[in-house]
Amino acid sequence: MSIVAHNIRKIGVMGAGQMGTGIALVSALRAKVPVLLYDRSPEQTTKGLAFVDKLLEKDVNKGRIQSIDAKEAKDRIQVVGHEEGIKGMRDVDMVIEAVSESLPLKQAIFASISITKIAASAVPKDVSAASEEGKKIAGRVVGLHFFNPVPVMKLVELISALQTTPDVLNRARSFAVACGKEVTTSKDVPGFVSNALLMPFINEAIMCLEKGIATKEDIDTTLKLGMNHPMGPLQLVVFFGSIGLDTCLAIQQTLYEGTRDSKYRPSILLERMVDAQWYGKKNGKGFYEY
Ligand code: CAA
User: Fold this and answer.
1) Are the C-beta atoms of 98 and 20 separated by less than 8 Å?
2) How many alpha carbons fall within 13 Å on the CB side of residue 43?
3) 285 in a known ligand binding site
4) 180 annotated ligand-binding residue
5) Which of 53, 119, 171, 260 has the most beta carbons within 10 angstroms of its beta carbon?
6) 3-state SS string over 116-154?
């Protein structure tokens, strides 16, 4: 996919956590666009860039890319200084928000908040949402849902807000394709397609454990070997870096409150695990010991 096709010549990425650095990497390496990377924590930015270096080096060592490709990709990623802040995101055609996963509740909020609502909130208070200007501003907001780990996962879920213009939607789609991803489209409903399927799936696995139907190992092995899932649901639930069982519970609660659909009703065991402050990998104890 050429750069002209998606017509996005430069992007900004807000947040240098796992998602943000992954998005910066695929944008710089695959779509070959300059990236301005901003995180309010300089330490996080340093950590994120070191991770990008590590992944590029691995790709070179495995013969997937040349060292010149790695160097060019790295050079395309520029850090926006802490002092400049968001104002440093100049002359970009698209800004991707991926603020750090050190705010787990944000994940919960974003699992249920509508892209339409985010688009509406982009319109300044003194501009009517129904005016041409209001529609133009809100029309630029689109949902691009990358998956963790971004460099490995082949999917991007595309979500159109009510206000998103067809042009913006098409450009976002072409950009994701240029990043080497397959794109699926979901309506702007709580959780989109991905979490509407994943959250009940994880919850059912926890309920199986709660009811004593099988051991945690057998639940995970059943899905891994019986259905070829790369990870079992009880492994996956704490896989998201600093995200853990607490975030999973928060997502399910928000989806449940937002939809009143019983498929999102969190299992008692999940609630008790969180009561016990056993969050998974991030603090060493979840369904497994880490
Ligand atoms: N970042 C970048 N690359 C990573 C990585 C990370 N955090 N973790 C693993 N990888 C890479 C490895 O470097 C390795 O790359 P190479 O092939 O180049 O060597 C490759 O992934 C495979 O890794 P491993 O051999 O170590 O282990 P694996 O075969 O078990 O794969 C996995 C690891 C890719 C994470 C795999 O277990 C998997 O696909 N798990 C499921 C992930 C998943 O479901 N993600 C979606 C989560 S839901 C979500 O993101 C959001 C949502 O809202 C729904």
Assistant:
1) yes
2) 1
3) no
4) no
5) 119
6) HHHHHHCCCCCCCCCCHHHHHHHCCCEEEEECCCCCCCC
Could you give phi then psi for residue 210, rounded to 5 degrees? -60, -40
Ligand 1 center–CA 111 separation, angstroms: 21
- pTM higher than 0.95: no
Q: Is the CB of 149 under 6 A from ligand 1?
A: yes
Q: Give the mean model confidence (pLDDT) for residues 20-31.
A: 97
Nearest residue (by CA) to ligand 1, atom 27, is 230
Atom number in ligand 1 closest to CA 59: 18
Residue to mutate (ligand 1; options 152, 193, 199; most atoms within 8 A of CB): 152
Whether 54 contacts 74, CB under 8 Å: no
147 CB less than 6 Å from ligand 1? yes
Q: Give me the residues paired with residue 158 across strands.
A: 144, 185
pLDDT digits (tens, 9 = 90+) for 49-93: 999 999 999 999 999 999 999 999 999 999 998 778 778 888 999
Tokens of 33: 């666009």
